[in-house]
Amino acid sequence: MPQLHPTIVKITERLIERSRASRARYFARINASGKLKPSRDHMGCANLAHAYAAAGQDQFRLRVERQPNIGIITSFNDMLSAHQPYEHYPPRLKAKARSLGATAQVAGATAAMCDGVTQGYAGMELSLFSRDAIAQSTVIGLSHQVFDAALLLGVCDKIVPGLLMGAAAFGHLPALFVPAGPMTTGISNKDKARVRQRFATGDATREELLDSELKAYHSEGTCTFYGTANSNQMMLEFMGLMLPGSAFVNPSTELRAALDEEAVTQALSIANHPEYSIAQLLNEKSIINGVIGLLATGGSTNHTLHIVAIARAAGIELRWEDMDELGQIIPLLARVYPNGSADVNQFHAAGGLGYVIGQLRSQGLLHDDVDTVVSNRFGKGMAAYTQEPYFHNGQLAWRAGTPHSLDESIVRPIDNPFAPDGGLKLLQGNLGRAVIKTSAVGENHRVIRAPAMVFEDQSELQHAFKEGKLDCKDFVAVVRFQGPKALGMPELHKLTPPLGVLQDRGQHVALVTDGRMSGASGKVPAAIHVSPEALDGGLIAKIQNGDIITVDANTGVLQLEVSTEELTVRTPAQRPDMDTENWLDFFAVARANVGRAELGATWLIKDVEI
Question: What range(s) does the Dihydroxy-acid/6-phosphogluconate dehydratase C-terminal domain occupy (predicted)?
């Protein structure tokens, strides 16, 4: 293997040093948990009776044989397509464990909400907070402490980060993720986007829009665009926390079922092996690999929050500047919608993650001296994740993935990338810090200097668009009081169609917000996750209509062109009264305690100085 790129060496060493104290505290807690955990060998009889009472045919094995017992955390619900397949997983996983002389029990379930359903509505105000609630529910499930390993069943936006954060609290346990896979391909992403923009301009009816959306989202499995859900699956492979090549295998296929059962076999093979525990595998190098995967594939902007929070749950102090600096050397190797026209099924068929990982390894752009959940089987390093699963004589096996791209409009070799950088950049200036996704933004739209148009709510911008107030002018739309403390940091993806229409008409437009823009961030330049937010003393609260703002994705600048003297005497805008749902009060404690976006926007982990 070629020598690791010196920039990756530098950033990793810096991350290790920055995290030395917090990582030591994390391991001290994990080691104490591992030593003090009430195992089945010495738990009280009454305690064990409660754990065994409903085990049925597995009771003898649990009670007498003391074989490994797997705890399953599931995100099943049958309202959401991505999680519906999990309905039948527990019986199959238990049966597989039983066939291997072991046992498995459902330790608990987590909430699983969909930003696609709640987009633009009140539910989005608790969407981000659901990640930390999922982490808590994972901890609750594993707190019974009668398990030797865990299987984590989750796919979508907040579910995977929450599961991993919760599993990190039980870092002495080995754990594998078991994906459900993407739905099969529906209508093209280009056709879907076209109908959305036609609806935004009033040229398509609601019936036409719904018909189009149902053709796009049409069956069980994750959405097929490369948003946060599929970025999650990518990240887990890059971090070595699931079986190789298993991320994008469709539900209800023989290969999917075989991989699901093989996850049980693999979990049992590393059960009670501390070298394969989450605490050991979730380290600085695997976190860096996850970031590299995000950059190389043009993944979701939501992971500038999630991977930071995941890292911090394991005592690792990842920063936006680490991600930005990596982005300067990691080339963009994939174009999957919204960064291209292909969906994840087409990406997978063209070479997929195995090909991308192989290309990065070939140039020393990935940590290869890492252990993964399959190191005991395939050996140390990421070579296993360049392979693909298949059936050999009716049995699941792995073989070398394709050595070349099968469609260079979707995935390219490292000597011919789509772009020399990964398409996620850090913006800095007097407005604070923000991130911008440039992989789908045209070169002629990456720099904009224009007057601000300020909105306190996303609906205000939509109304202004419908009334023609945004026509025939260049502007920077400022949508504030959307941050985690103010409103739970909702996604503002519904702003993409109207802003996209204006951009297509020849106007130069951009978005600046302390909210999110979702894994589907697209062609309109958007400075998102502005930190500090408006409700936390951020200068975004002092912007007025007509102020000139520069958003420069090329040089990493986010600047309000108003004198310091003028800004000093300005009074910050006050958060408007919000007519919202009373059930959101259940998350008031989250809003009151949530940290800054650049530190993961988590209310479970105390912010640190940066």
Answer: 410-601
**Tens digits of residue pLDDT in 65-99:** 678 999 999 999 998 999 999 999 999 999 999 99
Within 8 A by CB and 6+ apart from 271, the residues are 68, 70, 102, 148, 149, 174
CB 479 within 8 A of CB 457: yes
The answer, yes or no, to whether residue 538 has pLDDT greater than 60, is yes
DSSP of 301-358: TTHHHHHHHHHHHTT----HHHHHHHHTTS-B-B-BTTSSSB-HHHHHHHTHHHHHHH
6-36+67-184+219-400: CATH number: 3.40.50.2300
Does the annotation place 114 within a ligand binding site? no
To the nearest 10 degrees (0 to 180), the angle between helices 228-238 and 352-362 is: 50
Nearest to 148 by CA among 281, 278, 65, 267: 267
As annotated, the residues of the chain forming the CATH 3.40.50.2300 domain(s) are 6-36+67-184+219-400
pLDDT, tens digit, 9 for 90 and up, residues 324-377 = 999 999 999 999 988 888 999 999 999 999 999 999 999 999 999 999 999 999
Over residues 185-234, the pLDDT tens digits come to 877 767 877 877 787 778 888 788 768 776 777 789 998 989 899 999 99
Q: Tokens at residue 578, please?
A: 């919000």
Residues 424-578: name the CATH superfamily.
IlvD/EDD C-terminal domain-like (3.50.30.80)
Task: Pick the closest to residue 89 from 99, 100, 80, 97 (CA basis).
Answer: 97
CA distance 578 to 575: 8
pLDDT digits (tens, 9 = 90+) for 429-457: 999 999 999 888 889 999 999 999 999 99
Burial (CB count within 10 angstroms: exposed 0-12, middle 13-18, buried 19+), residue 204? middle
Query: pLDDT tens, 255-309?
Result: 999 999 999 999 999 998 999 999 999 999 999 999 999 999 999 999 999 999 9
What CA–CA distance (Å, rounded) separates 377 from 592? 46
d(CA 112, CA 114): 7
Please give the Cα distance from 408 to 355 (Å, whole number). Answer: 12
In the block, tokens 């408007």 appear at: 576
Q: First-to-last CA distance in the chain?
A: 35
**Spatial separation of the C-alpha atoms in residues 526 and 478, rounded to whole Å:** 10
What is the reported pLDDT for 210? 67
Q: Is 447 helix (H, G, I), strand (E, B) or coil?
A: strand
Whole-number Å distance between alpha carbons of 50 and 40: 12
Residues of each domain in the chain carrying CATH 3.50.30.80: 424-578
The first and second tokens of residue 298, run together, are 């043009």
Is 223 annotated among the ligand-binding residues?
A: yes
